Amino acid sequence: MVSPVTVVKSEGPKLVPFFKATCVYFVLWLPTSSPSWFSALIKCLPIFCLWVFLLAHGFSFLGAHSSARKILAGLIFSALGDAFLIWQEQGYFVHGLLMFAITHILYSSAFGMKPLNVSAGLIITAVSSLSYMLLYPYLSGPFTYLVAVYIALIGFMGWRAVAGLQLANDLWTWTKLSACLGAVLFMVSDLTIAVNKFCFPVPHSRAIIMATYYAAQMLIALSAVECQDVEVARKRT
Questions:
Q1: Are 104 and 153 in contact (CB under 8 A)?
Q2: Which residue, 17, 129, 181, 224, shows the most beta carbons closer than 10 Å to its own?
Q3: Could you tell me which of 129, 86, 237, 110 has the C-alpha nearest to residue 183?
Q4: What is the distance between the alpha carbons of residues 129 and 156, in angstroms, rounded to a whole number?
Q5: Using an 8 Å Cβ cutoff, are 199 and 135 in contact?
Q6: Do 45 and 217 touch, CB atoms closer than 8 A?
């Protein structure tokens, strides 16, 4: 298993543009009440940097590892979702929801179905069900089922990410831990969006949403860079 120190030394420099772009977003803190292509660019810039992060590992790397390609594709749809959500008050919220739904399908496929880890699935199902029960009284029209489908998709993605982390059996790598933490943070970010939009105002919601979202995407992107070692470990088990 690769040590965290080695990971930081090898992958840290490639993530510098991402950290800089994230800082730019929080420093500028452009008002959401005035959507523009510039604000969309600033919001998407950290995700663009994660594209570059994966591409920096080479096309041969991406060509050899389907998981990395799926995560890159998920990041592309995420950027489209971010752009649509800039204009959510102008009627593009559902478009953003669709882009992120596709993202979760791609991430789920990248994480794979082995190991199954039914107990993790039951826990995620319980959390997802409770989340929907919280939101349901505030939903109306098509959002009643759109939100249900979205929660099911992100819950499934979370299950597949958490399932790979087998701490009890010492069968884990930093990439599996990264995927797990990333998926959990993604769920926290999206639940905050839903509560803030449909239920009641969440204090400092934008800061919570974007901080957890950018951290989630970075961790999921990181989980792709050691696909070869993960695939070898799966074959051994």
A1: yes
A2: 224
A3: 110
A4: 12
A5: yes
A6: no
